């Protein structure tokens, strides 16, 4: 069993060694680990600025550290002190203990633009008339574009209209773990009551149901039960459900019963509006020309945008300087340099090849001998774990392999990790070599 206090001490010790003293003392040290349940670590932070910093700057590093310490994939969740002192939902609403709603995720706080207009309108309609035309509602798109914000805004709006609504918000991993535990503990009926006696079920990241046949069947039956009773179902995914590998056709058909809506990267106008909204929320005085400059430099997603604004703000505070285009330019140059140090698939292939004393060309080639296939699978696993690349992208980088081949490799390594101490050591050593 993982001991929370010693785990957090190890994490803080590592951050103390690898982070500047000003950043550590002001932004990292105040964080407190509150609980570790179902592979989810709840971290308490004193202010919104601290939470933004951890969400945007620390999450990837933290997940790597947690894995290195435990060899378990642990998801961090950040909360403010005041949120821990108040209920996560109005009386009567039931929320999964591990994933409460964020009260700040509302429709009013969401910045609407051309890239998310359809998703916003569909989500709002679903919250106003649950179980109606937009049921199920599936929102799909890349990381950091606002899918989870809209999903939780639906729940928050439903609870505002009906404080006694029974709403459950979980990740697909939580659903899977709850289902597996119900089988182990012989209480599947209780599990089904908890997931079907609801007014709304919201499930984040359904792409992780891929290749889990038993879980897919259980969710299929759960879906049907809720839909037959006109209960609202909201789902998110990182891609169109038709492109998710190893999902049964019947489950895909359920996912697209409603209107799947896509969120794409925001355009320049929307990015500027997002930054302006964030600056107003944080009560930061940022000139319009600086907001436009930052928006022109960061064109990926909302998370990266907010991270850039936070970096500029911290730089201004550290240098006791006003926020100007010159300051923003210097700060974002540092951000670009950090991005260049991000782990690439090519680097992973080189490190794995060297570790197992084979050539990189073997890793990306077609040879099927065990001495090459196994390192290749490890490299695919690490590519999925340490980069933001999609399964098709990883397959392409490994000599044009099909995404199902990549998924098979990842699944095989994950299963073997649970019982092979030598493999655990190899993965730990490789991750340490790959840290930027």
From TrEMBL:
Q: Where is this region: Domain IV, binds dsDNA?
A: 317-436
Copy the domain comment. Domain I is involved in oligomerization and binding regulators, domain II is flexibile and of varying length in different bacteria, domain III forms the AAA+ region, while domain IV binds dsDNA.
What the entry lists under CDD domains is as follows:
AAA (cd00009), Bac_DnaA_C (cd06571)
Which SUPFAM superfamilies does the record match to this protein? P-loop containing nucleoside triphosphate hydrolases (SSF52540), TrpR-like (SSF48295)
Does the record bear Cytoplasm in its keywords? yes
Its quaternary structure?
Answer: Oligomerizes as a right-handed, spiral filament on DNA at oriC.
Q: Name one GO molecular function term.
A: lipid binding
Pfam families in the record: Bac_DnaA, Bac_DnaA_C, DnaA_N
Q: What is the name listed in the Swiss-Prot or TrEMBL entry for this protein?
A: Chromosomal replication initiator protein DnaA
Which PANTHER family would you find in this protein's record? CHROMOSOMAL REPLICATION INITIATOR PROTEIN DNAA
SMART domains reported in the protein's UniProt record: AAA (SM00382), Bac_DnaA_C (SM00760)
Localisation per UniProt entry:
Cytoplasm
* Positions that bind ATP: 144, 146-148
């Amino acid at each position: 069993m993982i001991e929370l206090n010693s785990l957090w001490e190890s994490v803080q010790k590592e951050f103390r060694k690898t982070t500047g003293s000003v950043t550590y003392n002001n932004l990292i040290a105040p964080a407190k680990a509150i609980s570790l349940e179902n592979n989810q670590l709840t971290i308490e932070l004193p202010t919104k600025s601290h939470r933004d910093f951890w969400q945007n700057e620390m999450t990837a590093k933290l997940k790597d550290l947690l894995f290195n310490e435990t060899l378990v994939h642990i998801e961090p969740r950040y909360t403010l002190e005041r949120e821990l002192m108040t209920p996560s939902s109005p009386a009567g609403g039931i929320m999964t203990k591990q994933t409460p709603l964020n009260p700040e995720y509302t429709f009013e706080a969401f910045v609407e633009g051309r890239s998310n207009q359809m998703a916003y309108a569909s989500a709002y309609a679903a919250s106003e008339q649950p179980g109606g035309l937009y049921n199920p509602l599936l929102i799909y798109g890349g990381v950091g574009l606002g899918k989870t914000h809209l999903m939780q805004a639906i729940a928050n709006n439903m609870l505002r209209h009906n404080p006694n609504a029974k709403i459950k918000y979980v990740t697909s991993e939580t659903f899977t773990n709850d289902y597996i535990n119900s089988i182990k503990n012989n209480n599947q009926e209780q599990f089904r009551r908890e997931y079907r006696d609801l007014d709304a079920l919201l499930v984040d990241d359904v792409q992780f149901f891929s290749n889990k046949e038993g879980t897919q069947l259980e969710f299929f039956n759960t879906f049907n039960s809720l839909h037959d009773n006109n209960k609202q179902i909201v789902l998110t995914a990182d891609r169109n459900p038709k492109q998710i590998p190893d999902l049964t056709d019947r489950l895909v058909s359920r996912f697209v019963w409603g209107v799947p809506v896509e969120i794409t990267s925001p355009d320049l106008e929307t990015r500027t509006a997002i930054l302006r909204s964030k600056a107003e929320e944080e009560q930061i005085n940022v000139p319009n020309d600086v907001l436009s400059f930052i928006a022109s430099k960061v064109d990926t997603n909302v998370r990266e945008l907010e991270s850039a604004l936070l970096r500029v703000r911290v730089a201004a505070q550290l240098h006791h300087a006003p926020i100007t285009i010159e300051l923003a330019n210097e700060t974002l140059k540092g951000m670009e340099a950090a991005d260049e140090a991000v782990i690439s698939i090519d680097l992973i292939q080189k490190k794995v090849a060297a570790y197992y004393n084979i050539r990189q060309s073997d890793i990306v080639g077609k040879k099927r001998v065990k001495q090459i296939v196994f390192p290749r699978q490890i490299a695919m696993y690490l590519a999925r774990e340490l980069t933001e690349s999609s399964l098709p992208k990883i397959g392409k980088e490994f000599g044009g392999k099909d995404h199902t081949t990549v998924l098979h490799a990842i699944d095989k390594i994950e299963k073997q990790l649970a019982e092979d101490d030598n493999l655990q050591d190899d993965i730990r050593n490789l991750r340490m070599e790959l840290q930027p």
